[in-house]
Design brief:
Radius of gyration: 19 Å
Strand content: under 5%
Number of helices: 12
Shape: globular
Structural class: mainly alpha
Order of helices and strands: HHHHHHHHHHHH
Number of strands: 0
Helix content: over 70%
Distance between the termini: 36 Å
Length: 192
Amino acid sequence: ASMKQGGKANFDVAIIHFQRALELDPQNFEAIKDLARILSWDVTRRGESLHLYRRALAIQPTDKDLQYQLAEVLNWAGNYYESTELFKPLYKEDPGNMALVLNYANALSNSGQYYDSIALYQKAIKNKKPFDDYTALNYARTLSKTGNTNLSIKIYNDILQKTTNVDEQTNIKQELASVLVNAGRYEEAIQV
């Protein structure tokens, strides 16, 4: 996580170091995995990241951390079905891992498995796992797709109150207005 928080220059230096390590030992599992992780944070390099993750998985097919990271990146890249298929056995082995539960819930929601997703979001809530705004928005979207409009709207409004970025506020307001329109609540949608 600390590499993720660093600047672009730090990423570039790390990428160069991992690439050099792989030149010396193309089967260096840790270097492949770490390079895949760094590249996964750059939306333009997710394809490279997925290739490296699959390469690492061929070397260490039972590595749970690797499987988790790959499932996460597959979800980010829009490969929802493959992501949920990787998350499923990880969840069965560790159903108390709330970070895993939330990532699996997001992947299920993205793949259209809304009710399964909601069950996992609710499990996390019962375990008092705080949601980041990304997860809360996914939960709100999932609720709205299953007709649970009131709770969805409440979550959207809660997020709006915390959000200070104008562009993010605009996007959230557009989503909220859409949920309200779909629920036939036109007057409220106009006021958003």
